[in-house]
From TrEMBL:
InterPro entries to which the protein is assigned, alphabetical: Cro/C1-type_HTH, Lambda_DNA-bd_dom_sf, TransReg_Diox_bact_type
Protein name: HTH cro/C1-type domain-containing protein
Alphabetical UniProt keywords: DNA-binding
HTH cro/C1-type domain: residues covered: 8-62
Molecular functions per Gene Ontology: DNA binding; DNA-binding transcription factor activity
GO cellular component, one term: cytosol
Pfam families in UniProt: HTH_3
Entries under PROSITE patterns matching the protein: HTH_CROC1 (PS50943)
Length: 69
């Protein structure tokens, strides 16, 4: 999950979104988004899904899942 913090922040910034906006769209608090981006918290699968939906991306883009098996 260490890379998650970097991926979340990178995708959020690529989409031109603030933590506050992402929090609103994903039904999370801004402080929780901040804690995820600083690795003070680890996301649940549901949180990853909510964030991916809000960012209009696939959860594997946030988790760096290798889909080339």
């Amino acid at each position: 999950m260490y890379k998650f913090k970097f991926k979340l922040e990178a995708v959020r910034k690529l989409k031109g979104m603030t933590q506050k906006r992402l929090a609103y769209l994903s039904n999370l608090s801004q402080s929780h988004i901040s804690e995820l981006e600083t690795a003070k918290q680890s996301p649940t699968l549901k949180t990853v899904e909510n964030l991916a939906d809000a960012l209009k991306t696939h959860p594997d883009k946030l988790l760096e899942v290798d889909t080339n098996h």
